Amino acid sequence: MIRKHSASLHGHRTSFSLEDEFWAELKAIATARAIPLAALISEIDDRREPQSNLSSALRIHVLSWLKNRS
Length: 70
Prior knowledge:
Number of domains: 1
Number of strands: 2
Strand order of the largest sheet: 1-2
Mean pLDDT: 94
Distance between the termini: 26 Å
Shape: globular
Low-confidence stretches: none
């Protein structure tokens, strides 16, 4: 199921939609790196291509993280 989430990035609220599975993996990545989830989302947002949206950037980050772990 896709759910809407919101976060504060650089003082501005933004929302994004993610499947539950991607949300769970993002939280696991933040835990593994010992950083707050908001910091991870902000880091991904800062690194994404200007033409991409945040939801896609988050999914790609999760995919990349999982591929690099195997």
